[in-house]
Amino acid sequence: MGSGHKADKASLASSHTHSFSHQHHPSPPASKEVWKKGGRMFSILLAVHLALLACTLVSSGAFEKIAVHDYDVFFLLTVMMLIVIVWIIFYLVSTSRSPDAILCKDSHAGPVWLRGGLILFAIFSLVMDVFKIGYYSSFYSCLSAIKIIYPIVQAIFVIVQTYFLWISAKDCVHAHLNVTRCGLMLTLTTNLAVWMSAVTDESVHKAHSKLKKNVTEEIFKWLMKAGMRSGSTEECNCNSQICQIFKNGYFWLYPFNIEYSLFASAMVYVMWKNVGRFIDHHSHHIHRLKFRLFRRTFFVGIVLGLIILVSGLGVLIVYEVRVNSSHEPSKKNEALTMYYIFNIVCLGLMSLVCIGGSVIYRFDKRDMDRHKNPTRTLDVALLMGAALGQYAISYYSIVAIVASTPRDTISALNLTYALLMIAQHTFQNIFIIEGLHRQPPKEDHKRDLRQKDPYGLTFVNVNAVSLRVPDSGSTVTPSPLPSIEAIHPSELVQSLAGPKKMNWRRKFLREISMFLLLSNIILWIMPAFGARPQFDNDKELNFYGDSMWPAIVDICLPFGIFYRMHAVASLLEVYIMS
């Protein structure tokens, strides 16, 4: 009787365990799509054709001899943004009404710091649109109406898209799959087209203010004539003080609008990858780590980073004053020397710190995260791709300096700066990519298990949490509770003992991440707001010519600026995961 009763209890426990295991490990439903790659291919082809059309118009509009004006570009961009606004409204309404439209969410997509950065850039983009509206309204009587309509539509587009990405960045959509893919690709292409237009406009403005020669002067004349009904440049001169404020204001805010377009494009691409995706929640770990800026740190990285940041701002102000306000060659050379010395020191420290961080990773016992993660894949691709822009500028500078004569102090500093720029990008990419592929610390996972309180008790008798051995000697495992993973007694004892102190490896990695984050901020600010020695140093300009070298810088420099801002977001994630 006793043995039969025990056998019944064991079989009942095993059946409960079996049922719980089935409830706790659901298999992902089969996809309803017959050919998933076909839908993706169609949306990619749509994006490629639209991107080529926009690129053709933007590049053609940059030259006076080609019969394409800037208001033609504005008309195309306005139409694209209006279509995207209509599609976003359709998406929000359709997904809110259909409960089965979004079956799961990607926890890695659209982290809060990325969305926060998007909102910050969106605010400055809206201010830029206000300045642009005020500037064009100063002489609206001789301008095409599209030049005033365009910034108004762009402001509405920024507001609608920012709201859309804030609430929908994590969605894995399972309704209107092909329409959603095409809509997301249209949104991505629109952001890239706006980015190309902003980069072209800013580059022409910077080139005119720096060089004022040959092709650049012609481009400036075209910018003043394009879109004017009377065709007279004198009638539309910006002579009033308020007009000059609007003009200078929106040019200074262009870097924020450029970064906004690229951030939005990256988030939209991740959403496109997640269309029709089913996430296995057991292989897709969700790490809810808290951001503690002033805890568990020695403050060394923050202090050194703030010193670099403040010093860089001072160097930027002095550089702008001496280069732009003074025509004396001696002051210009002093400003270039100061700029190069600061960057050499900063890049040298960053390279050494990145090498140290990579060495520390060799002693890190955390496992590598090998699960599928579209967001991380995109981060790595953007880091590697955007670095190519600065690599190109550096190699062009090295060739020009080595092959030309005479070799003075500024040439030696420029050569050192170019070599360190290549080294710093390489070492920083290695450090960031390795940090993004690391698992979070085990202490946080064990602390989460302790907070779940799986036994429903405030105080747990550790001796009671053990396996009972029946008289027959067979081991009977108690049936697991739903949504509770099996916990080894030794792990339970460690988790109940409280969180361990952070080891030295994690502390050093946090210091390194914070120092690199602040250093990348100043290295983004300096070229984004006018400190561009590529136009002020005559070595490359004389070697490649007035036409080739500005074109190289205008094409490659925006990628280098974007690299710095994307590195800031990636380093923040590495800091939190350390």
UniProtKB/TrEMBL annotation:
GO CC terms, sorted: plasma membrane
Keywords assigned: Cell membrane, Hydrogen ion transport, Ion channel, Ion transport, Membrane, Transmembrane, Transmembrane helix, Transport
Record Pfam families: Otopetrin
Transmembrane segments: 41-61, 73-93, 113-136, 148-167, 251-272, 293-319, 339-361, 381-403, 508-529, 549-576
Location of the protein in the cell: Cell membrane
UniProt superkingdom: Eukaryota
InterPro entries: Otopetrin
Record flagged with keyword Ligase: no
Molecular function GO labels: proton channel activity
Membrane topology qualifier: Multi-pass membrane protein
Family: Belongs to the otopetrin family.
Protein name: OTOP2 protein
Organism: Nothocercus julius
